[in-house]
Amino acid sequence: MGAAATLERRFATDLRSTGRRLEGYAATFSATADLGAFRERISVGAFRNALSGDILALLDHDAGKVLGRTRTGTLELREDDKGLAFSLDLPDTAAGRDVLALAARGDLGGMSFGFLVPEGGEEWDGDTRTLRSIDLREISVVSAWPAYEGTEIALRYYRQHNGSQRRARALRLAEARQWA
């Protein structure tokens, strides 16, 4: 990659829970993120070559709060037509319990992922960058607002949230982003 690469992070908001397992999407292909200085999209297939390594699941990108990892099987990742899907078995730690409690209340902002862009992994068209290949390092459960629209965050455990609850939460998130 030449010069020292800078780890980049992007956010999404699709999260569900069954017991101590969280599932959802850490990134979606259908969304374009407005990152201020530029816009960004993720191409279908961008994660394909990155899923064989040891990827961590963190809380708020904090390496001191590991929630799972692919090497141990507590984190499973796959790319499908929608985006980067994940399934995470949360540990019985303070961080794991916090994530479950915040998810149950609907207080989590969403998901994020930390990545590097390998040489030739991006394409620019004016001020829009399309990520064609991503060197994925970690996914994170985050309390901040997502950069990428088009996904949702919901808790599914003993009861299912219905569509109106998800829509109401999406509206609250959109309103909060206006003030951020």
From TrEMBL:
Entry keyword set: Hydrolase, Protease, Viral release from host cell
Keyword Protease: yes
GO molecular function: peptidase activity
Superkingdom assignment: Bacteria
Prohead serine protease domain sequence ranges: 18-156
A single BP term in Gene Ontology: proteolysis
Pfam family, one: Peptidase_S78
Secretion signal span: none
Keyword Hydrolase among record annotations: yes
Protein name: HK97 family phage prohead protease
Native source species: Qipengyuania spongiae
